[in-house]
Amino acid sequence: VILFGADAKDFCAQTKTIKINSYDNTKKIKPDIKDIEEFLNDKELGIIFFPGPSKHTNMKSIAPQVIDLISLNIRNNKQIIGAIAADNSKLIKTFQIDQESVDPDKIVIAGINTTINFKTISGHGYQRKNEDKEYRFKLKENKIEKISVIKDSISEENVQSAIKTYAKEVGISEDQLRSTMPYFKGPKDIKTWLKLTCFAKKTKPHELNYPFDIEDDMLIFTGTLDETEPLIMMETSSEKLVASIQKSVIENLQELNDDAQLVLLFNCAIYNVMVPNYKNEIKELKLNNQLKQTKIVGAYVNGEIGEYSKNTTSVCNGSITGIIFGTHKKIG
Q1: 231, 247, 233, 254: which is closest to 326 by C-alpha?
Q2: Alpha helices per DSSP H over 74-173
Q3: Planar angle of CA 168, 221, 104, nearest 5 degrees
Q4: CA torsion 309→310→315→318, rounded to 10°?
Q5: What's the start-to-end Cα distance of the chain, in Å?
Q6: For residue 48, which of 111, 117, 121, 116 has the smallest C-alpha distance?
Q7: pLDDT digits (tens, 9 = 90+) for 21-67
Q8: In this predicted structure, what is the pLDDT of residue 74?
Q9: What is the pLDDT of residue 332?
Q10: pTM of the predicted model, to two decimals?
Q11: Phi-psi category of residue 215: left, alpha or beta, with phi > 0 → left and psi -120 to 50 → alpha
């Protein structure tokens, strides 16, 4: 549990909750989205927490659709970060806390006004694996039945099962692929597991879809996939993930032009598995002279919300998001 406080005249926070009645139809919460926008409009900073994909939500998250709708209407100078909740990797149910209430079906929003200097941060640890390849797939009951490879804009003729194609593209055997599932329960063979890659929509490379499990020889991926849009394959390494945190925090601290008294981080849960010792992330940050005396707190989450492109708040995976609070008051 992380607790931090500040003088009321320097830091003021209010909270709001939205009850989710359906994970299949975003239209049902559109009136509530208007309430979120109005709640945040007189706040400098918004922190939003969503339920994570789980068996309870049929492995769906409404966060991408909700954030897209909010981003269209909210003022450009508004800074918003947040997280999608994670559980103990069994993906049964996640919980959000508001005051004394604990609920698996609530969006929790904190709206903040502060005189303290601050800056939001976002960074991504993945990159495209093959620049000349795209992928299309066929779904059956929300599972990927077949994957076709498109190389240099030409589709292969022999479309094979999702398991065969994915294993071939990653560079492991089908048996090795099966041995790594379910994905989030951790690898039996770390070298094989680290070869696994994820898919992303070509238009949204920051929204990653991880292979979660295998059922009836079909692949189950996290996130919501659309047959009409080609996918690209994304990859990373332990070193790239640690470097992405370093780069994001240090660059934004320089832009803040202040000393940091607190860094609040939401790291993708993938860091907890792919970085052999998760403390390496903090140790690497603490090596920087500007951060040696800084308090660094946070949590591993199942999706990160931040500004991954200019003036656009979106949902990401395989990334970090957070806030740096400075030591000085804002000018003006």
Answers
A1: 254
A2: 162-170
A3: 160
A4: 40
A5: 34
A6: 111
A7: 777 666 666 667 788 888 888 898 999 999 887 777 776 778 887 88
A8: 66
A9: 58
A10: 0.81
A11: beta
